[in-house]
Amino acid sequence: MFCSNCGAQVNDNLTVCPNCGAIMQGNKPNVTAASTYVGPMGDPTPVLTWGIIGLAISCVFGIIGLIFSLIGLKKYNNYKSFTSGAYSRQAEIGKKLSIAGIIVSIAVTVFWILYVVVIVLWVNKYTGSLYC
Questions:
Q1: How many Å apart are CA 59 and CA 21, to the nearest integer?
Q2: Do residues 130 and 121 lie in contact, with contact meaning Cβ atoms separated by under 8 Å?
Q3: pLDDT digit string (tens) for 42-77?
Q4: d(CA 29, CA 128)
Q5: 132 Cβ contact list (under 8 Å, min separation 6)
Q6: 65-90: b or e for each residue (b if 16 or more CB lie within 10 Å)?
Q7: What count of other Cβ atoms lies within 10 Å of the Cβ of residue 5?
């Protein structure tokens, strides 16, 4: 076969002319699974990222961390359903971090609620009123 762009002789199984880089007419490139773009739903990185952010924020801001951790868990579920349950180390770590973030955020929220209640009771005990 000859290249229609530069006229060089090209092997029949090639899809691109080695001389000029033109795509050969009649030969379509083979698309393999490794070169197929899977899109954002098939990428486990957001699961890990949301898990890390959720856990980190949960340590100080319970409710906000809970929201981020729940988003991470939702991303994990979307990833698993999109990839038909394929295993990914990043996604599994992200799931575990999201669950840890949920637990920590609940504990931190309970701590802050108890802290406020104790302060209110202490102020009430020593001043006789909630208003100073």
A1: 55
A2: no
A3: 667 778 888 888 888 888 888 888 899 998 888 888
A4: 83
A5: 123
A6: bbbbbbbbbebbeebbeebeeeebeb
A7: 14
